[in-house]
Amino acid sequence: MTTIPKIDVRAVGKWFGRGDQGQAAGIEVLRDVTFAVMPGEFVCLVGPSGCGKTTLLRMMSGLIPIDRGQILIDGTRPPVPGPHAGFVFQSYRLLPWRTVLDNVRFPLEIQGKDAAEQRQRAATYIRMVGLAGFEQRYPHELSGGMQQRVGLARALAMGPEILFMDEPFAALDAQTREFMQIALSRIWEANRVTVVFVTHSLDEALFLADRVILMRPRPGAVEEVLAVPLPRPRWTYDFHARSEFVALRAHLWERIRRMVADQPEFAWLLGGPGDDEAHGQLRPV
Amino acid sequence: MGTDRAQVLPAPRVRAAGHRRLGVTAWRLIALGMILGAWHVASIPAGALLLPSPLAVAPQFVALLRSGELLAATASSLTVLFSGYSLAILTGVSLGVLMGGIRPFGETLEIFVHAMNSTPRVAFIPLIVLWFGLGIKAKVVIVWLTAVFPILINTYVGVQNTDWGLIEAARSFGARQSQVFRHIMLPSALPYVVTGLRIGAALAVIGTVVAELYTALTGLGHLLALFGNTFQTAKYFVPVVTLLLIGTAISESLKALERRAARWKSTTVEF
Q: Is B234 left (phi over 0), alpha (psi -120 to 50) or beta?
């Protein structure tokens, strides 16, 4: 018996610019993207800038239309924004005029839940992300890491089946970022929602994901799908010292290096034929 | 948890701001005393006709207050002022919200709004008199016309400047357009709206006096004309001071509202 994928991405294409239907007028952002995310799976999308990771995430959550192919949720319905899918953004996107409590309550308010339930659920998830006692603070009074934990609590409080996370920790300092990765893993181990997580960081992707989907740019497409066979919970041992991690990271890094080397603006950086001249020009003195 | 505490702004800052404001009040009173002193000194060589001393104005103030003349005039002016101003708030905010929320509508009307805003409103007074007569209707229309544009433009800009990311976030939670409007665009525009209200209020006071002078003479404008034309300079200062007080009262209460509306902004953490 086969399980129905939570998110089924089938031959998806996307253009930006005037002619959404024709290659001639617009820019092709994604071409023929196909993969599936299973229920309860943690999937990371990685790849160089311009490979359409964020665009794909927006399409999977129903925020922007799909030009070619289709995306199915639970094998039946097209993606529509709503309480079944929580979104966590890179720039937090908290409502600055609302307190922590009222921010976490916001999606529940949108759904028309009664006030008592809003409060109770918001309080539960604020506690879960370790922000009990900060309910009446305004976002600007909190550090970046704390703000993003509010963002996470807000997404989780809706009781989503899917969590879309768009480079959620990219704006944080290295130490806070590591802490947030552990916090997220812990919460995920307890909840087991389906997560699609976009990141530029290979370390982050490998630490968090069950599978890593590597994408290539121009137009964005799936390059390779890798399983991360390391045991969970991963914060209990020296994850980065494991040979499996090192091998996977080296493999991904090499693939990305090659993709980027094909792009003229990076070629001089990474070595390749004819780069001596470029070096000469850039070197001061 | 202990480390988290250290990451938030310290609470004592609020109290410090309170202390500082007490200091400002004291300084303001000193400045007022100095202004009145300078006024008095200047009045000695100028003479009572050109510049009566504040000591001469004060008894006139009391006399006009006692006779009921000042209260009646102030009441009449405030009626015009608040009718026109309320109308300006109502129309300015609604139209501004519509213009900001519905892009093509806003882009179409924008140029006309700015054209009207940069035309001296006095130019319309003869027309208004022609259409509405010399009574209260014409006066309310003049006040409305003077005050409405800054309110409208600020509201429009406020709604327009709503962070696009917040709108998308709300949509990702399943918010309908009406909910985006109510929960994102309006609160985000509020500080702008209140600033518009403050500018509009100052203009409404000016509009009121202009209206009272250019149409049938009533209210404080009437007192100005009466005492000005008959060279009763000490009495003339009474409606002037009253207008000063009205303007200050409105502007200060709106400033308080402005602080409340923007209390979530990092630069105004005071209460």
A: alpha
Q: pLDDT averaged over chain A?
A: 84
pLDDT in tens, A198-215: 999 999 999 999 999 999
d(CA A174, CA A182): 13
Query: Residue A21: is its pLDDT beyond 80?
Result: no
Residue in B9, B168, B171 nearest the CB of A141: B9
Picking from A98, A110, A138, the nearest residue to B173 by CB comes out as A110
Nearest to B173 among A130, A131, A158 (CB): A158
Contact B183 A106 (CB under 8 A): yes
CA distance A10 to chain B (A): 22
Domain count, chain B: 1
End-to-end CA distance of chain B: give it in Å, rounded. Answer: 27
Closest chain A residue to B268 measured between Cα atoms?
A140
Q: What is the CATH number of the domain that holds B212?
A: 1.10.3720.10
Check pLDDT > 70 for residue A269: no
Average of per-residue pLDDT across A133-154: 88
* Residue A279 to chain B, least CA–CA distance (Å): 40
CATH numbers and ranges of domains, chain A: 7-80+198-282 (3.40.50.300)
Q: Residue B52 carries which DSSP code? A: -
Nearest CA to A207 among A172, A174, A245? A245
CA-closest candidate to residue A163, choices A55, A281, A273, A39: A39
| Alpha carbons A65 and A68: distance in angstroms, whole number | 9
B75: containing domain:
61-261
d(CA B32, CA A109): 51
> Would you say B195 and A102 are in contact if contact means Cβ atoms under 8 Å apart?
no
Q: Is residue B125 in a domain?
A: yes
Residue B24 within any structural domain of the chain: no
Is residue B185 in a domain?
Answer: yes
Residue type, B62: V
pLDDT digits (tens, 9 = 90+) for A94-105: 998 898 999 999
Over residues B17-63, the pLDDT tens digits come to 555 566 888 999 999 999 999 999 999 898 888 899 999 899 999 99
Flag whether B200 is in a domain: yes
